[in-house]
Amino acid sequence: MRIILLGPPGAGKGTVSGKLKQHDNAAHISTGDILRNAVKAGTALGKEAKAYMDRGDLVPDSLIMGMVEERLKEPDCRIGFIFDGFPRTIPQAEMLDKLLAKLDIKLDAVINLDIPKQVVLDRLTTRRTCSNAACQAIYNVKSMPTKVEGICDKCGQPVIQRSDETEEAILNRLETYNRQTSPLIDYYDQKGMLRSIASLSSEDVVKEAIAALS
Ligand code: AMP
Q: Is 195 labeled as catalytic in the residue annotation?
């Protein structure tokens, strides 16, 4: 599959991507994960991106596009890919159209995870993420806690609250989403590529997504 997952922060894009990846081995391309790894590794990209990310603002398009092009050329993307958190703006979507044309790749669909704002707020403030850059498993203190408090079930490293998941940063991320990312829903709808799914349980979303793609 070659798809884009759209939806506000907290809609479950990361969890759904992980499950879809198990279905057909498509590469999971999360620009947020790539950026967090760059921040952790202290690369030039990470240093430039960190302040934007901590505030809940978008990282400039120029930094994102180079990163995406490099990732798309990696061999695992030949099987397929799931974009999670990208594109985030109309200019990014337009640049992606050009990049895909240049690489002779066709998208199958854009899946929009539709979720009420209150559910998003609740999910994000209770979300915890594995601090191990190679793992980044996602938990929730209410609905999906770790077996041992604060320790990742998968790799045994500490599980933390992301620095952009304070209430203030979350509200800013939601506002940023409404202003800059939600116009992509119409953009892809007009191209006839959009499939909207109510994002409640990730299992149901995955079933609906697979049905919509086949
Ligand atoms: P995410 O994990 O997708 O919510 O991304 C976390 C943060 O990384 C966002 O709040 C942005 O600061 C940054 N980010 C991730 N993807 C993008 C993107 N496609 N364009 C701009 N900034 C991004």
A: no
